[in-house]
Design goal:
The protein has 830 residues and is of the alpha+beta class.
């Protein structure tokens, strides 16, 4: 019996019964011999037979019964990767460490590994050691120093590659000139003397074994791990030309030309130097793809001015604590998140939200770290510091999105995984066909084989998707559009239906009372000198403490009129209907018509007036006392100025726009008509929003996005194909959403979708180029064009140097195409 024990940290247990439930369900699994679930330590220890049960099955079972497994995520900067196969190799060896490693993603473009693991089962040092054993490097430093260390390591790598490139140029250029001049008969008979070949060998050797050493080392690492990468192809191609030339040189020195009369040292040297140039340009271009995230990191303040013991002192930003009182003068950056306790100013938040107009800040308002205080002096209390600040979370979100893999990348990964072995096979076949079948001799056949090895480029395939994702997510972050992952970025481009929650999304979310209508023939109304104020006071008293926007509007209206409110008793909220309570001895019901109907309340002829108010796009709130309707309070929520323009832009993108609201049908349709909504879902209860989204998805029209900002929007955001949360909303909605919009402006929705469409178009262009390049040029290098005598010889017999040049710039072209996204202009009114 292949017995093994696994210990898993559990989340979601609230009592010993939870522990018993987990144990009971795990014991039912075939292969489990013993289970111990400890509620105190929150760990499950399972002994099982690995021949019949896997660790993943145990973890899945725990999750299926409603509990979680504690995992930790760490991101490691990797050095030494030269192509997508290297990334795939590291990812493969990390995933072999399952179940301790739950998931691992290695991104060649960002040169980072994201590892999710089980604490207690494994430590970062373990998989760092595995990565290093595979022949790659890991940049290690403290959290606060990691970014500086990573940046320094990347810059050192660029300096090293630049130095090697120029050394390559210094030796390859004279070697190339000498070789070409001799081949064209420009130097006379002396250039064919044997010693000239030895001079060429002397010039080629430093290029081959110093400049090109990285390719030998990288190829060795790959082969040691039973895989193959770009380094293998370059090392094979250049080595073939170099080592073929060695015996030819010796033979010619001894007076024999039986092995040939031409050496290819310049070919080997130029292959390495040109590819080194291409990789250098690629590294520099890749650095530009992360410019947006570097810009965000650069916004972080280094110091903060705080009040300690009654004195203002400057301290490092790391020493600011929650509750500290922070002082910000005009022209200074706000160091951390907080709430203003004193002062008045205008704050520029454009660096986070993309909103160019400064935002007024006064006592009680929130301020966000990294924004710029423009005018007055502000004193605020720190509420979030360090990793909890909005800026830190934005950076984390963008980094995670850039490090994630889009579904469209799967095909490229699959091709890249077998690419190099297939190319080696094609190169070998090319050599054999031209040597034996065509009979051109070994040397011409070898040259074609070298051209095939050198021209093949797995790097373009590996960079096609992640570079565009990096630039696209970075571009979004610059204008306050945050994609949770690359899957969300990809999903947004194929949306067909946009569902907009009305309150706080289409409207300002701060409704106000517009009308108070009384039932004049009711005895309670007739007793009052000012029946409208009495009605408003009664409704506001009932709604005291209400968190519903409509209830808050009624209370606010009563307070503005200076009315003294009573204390309600036996308060009961009826979800989606209203409230029921007792005020000053009366049974009071405040809510919609559905509440009145369900409570069998007499409407006293007020229904026509309610319909009239609804036709004016107002919400009619009924007020009943002791089972009798006594009046109506009309509340209207102001439509955001940008909503109509935003919906028009969505229509231009070919989207169907749906409004979801708890308002009655008549009110909802009037609002929809005013701003161009296609379809209305009215009188939707908070708990039914997700069901309505699911219903739209089942209609088969296409993918559905949900846009909202409240806590009760969270299930609908999760249900939608793409959930979009407005940044002015709650943290719950933002956590659930696939896309977070930092501005409360609905125009950010079409901007996010437009950005997704352009990014996906760029990815498809990149993938087409990467596939097209290899599918077309590998056969050209094989010599399929040779029979076409009307073509120039450089195409009929592709020289390895031209192949190296094409290969060097293939990946650069993909990265450059992705960088064009940085110049994309998102449509936005000034």
């Amino acid at each position: 019996m292949n017995e093994k024990q696994i210990s898993l940290p559990i989340t979601g247990m609230h009592c010993t019964n939870c522990a018993n439930t987990i144990a009971r369900n795990l014991e039912k699994l075939d292969g489990v011999s013993e289970v111990n679930v400890n509620y105190a330590t929150e760990k499950a220890t399972v002994n099982f037979d690995r021949s019949t049960l896997t660790e993943d099955a145990i973890i899945d079972k725990i999750k299926d019964i409603g509990y979680g497994i504690t995992t930790v995520k760490v991101e490691l900067p990797i050095t030494g990767m030269t192509c997508a196969n290297c990334a795939a190799n590291i990812e493969r060896i990390l995933k072999k460490m399952a179940p301790a490693v739950v998931n691992a993603t290695v991104n060649f473009a960002t040169e980072k590994a994201a590892v999710e693991y089980l604490p207690g089962q494994i430590a970062p040092a373990d998989f760092i050691a595995i990565i290093k054993k595979a022949g790659y490097g890991v940049i290690e430093a403290g959290t606060e120093k990691l970014e500086d260390a990573e940046s320094a390591a990347r810059e050192a790598e660029i300096r090293d590659q630049t130095r090697k490139f120029w050394i390559g140029v210094a030796f390859s250029l004279p070697l190339f000139v000498l070789s070409m001049a001799r081949d064209f008969g420009l130097l006379g008979a002396w250039s064919h003397a044997p010693w000239v070949n030895w001079l060429m060998l002397a010039l080629a050797t430093p290029v081959q074994f110093y400049v090109g050493w990285d390719y030998y080392l990288g190829g060795f690492k790959a082969l040691r791990n039973l895989t193959a990468n770009m380094d293998v192809l370059v090392a094979m191609g250049s080595s073939t030309a170099f080592f073929y030339s060695l015996p030819v040189t010796v033979a010619l020195t001894l007076g024999s030309n039986t092995l040939g009369d031409h050496v290819y040292f310049e070919t080997a040297a130029l292959i390495i130097t040109l590819i080194k140039l291409g990789k250098l340009l690629e590294v520099r271009a890749k650095g530009q793809t992360s410019a947006a995230i570097k810009k965000l990191m650069g916004l972080r303040a280094k110091t903060a001015r705080v009040v300690r013991d009654g004195e203002e002192i400057d301290i490092p930003i790391e020493q600011v604590s929650v509750g500290d009182v922070v002082i910000v003068r005009p022209g200074e950056s706000i160091p951390v998140d907080g709430i203003v306790i004193e002062g008045y100013s205008a704050v520029d938040e454009s660096m986070l939200t993309g909103e160019s107009l400064p935002v007024t800040k006064k006592s009680g308002d929130e301020v966000v770290g990294a924004t710029l205080n423009k005018q007055g002096r502000l004193k605020f209390k720190a509420t979030k510091v360090g990793a909890e600040t909005a800026l830190a979370q934005i950076i984390r979100l963008v980094q995670e999105a850039q490090g994630s893999k889009a579904p469209i990348q799967r095909l490229a990964d699959q091709v890249a995984s077998v690419f190099v072995p297939v190319v080696i096979g094609i190169a070998a076949a090319t050599l054999l066909v031209w040597w034996f079948a065509v009979g051109v001799g070994f040397t011409p056949a070898m040259i074609r084989m070298v051209a095939v090895l050198v021209i093949a480029c797995p790097c373009a395939l590996g960079l096609a998707t992640p570079t565009a994702i990096m630039v696209g997510t970075g571009k979004g972050a610059e204008v306050g559009i945050l994609f949770k992952n690359s899957e969300a970025l990809e999903g947004a481009h194929s949306l067909k239906i946009i569902v907009l929650d009305k309150t706080g999304t289409i409207t300002e979310g701060q409704p106000s009372v517009t009308d108070v209508v009384t039932c004049d023939n009711h005895k309670l109304i007739q007793q009052e000198a000012n029946p409208e104020q009495w009605l408003l006071r009664l409704a506001a008293s009932a709604e005291r403490g209400s968190e519903h926007p409509l209830g808050e509007a009624i209370v606010r209206a009563a307070q503005e009129q200076g009315l003294t409110l009573a204390e309600p008793d036996h308060f009961e909220a009826v979800a989606g209907h209203g409230i029921m309570t007792q005020v000053e001895g009366h049974q009071v019901a405040v809510g919609n018509l559905r509440l009145m109907t369900e409570q069998s309340i007499s409407l006293n002829g007020l229904k026509p007036k309610a319909l009239q108010l609804q036709s004016e796009a107002k919400t009619a709130i009924w007020l009943a006392v002791d089972g009798q309707a006594v009046g109506l309070i009309a509340v209207a929520d102001t439509i955001k100025p940008s909503s109509k323009a935003a919906i028009a832009e969505m229509h231009q993108l070919g989207l169907q726009v749906v409004m979801m609201t708890g308002d009655n049908q008549a009110t909802a349709e009037n609002i929809a008509k005013a701003i161009g909504i296609d379809h209305v879902l009215a009188e939707v209860l908070p708990g039914d929003k997700a069901k309505e989204v699911k219903k739209l998805q089942s209609e088969g029209i296409g993918k559905v996005a949900m846009v909202g900002d409240g806590i009760n929007d969270a299930p609908a955001l999760a249900q939608a194909d793409v959930g979009i949360a407005l940044g002015t909303g709650t943290d719950v909605a933002m956590e659930t959403a696939d896309v977070t919009l930092m501005r409360g402006d609905l125009r950010s929705v079409p901007e996010a979708i437009a950005l997704s469409k352009v990014t996906m178009r760029t990815i498809k262009q990149n993938l087409f180029w990467a596939f097209f390049y290899n599918v077309i040029l590998i056969p050209v290098a094989m010599g399929v064009l040779h029979p076409l005598i009307f073509l120039p010889m450089m195409l009929r017999t592709l020289h390895p140097v031209l192949a190296a040049f094409a290969m060097a710039f293939s990946s650069v072209s993909v990265v450059t195409n992705s960088l064009r996204l940085r110049g994309m202009r998102l449509k936005r009114d000034a």
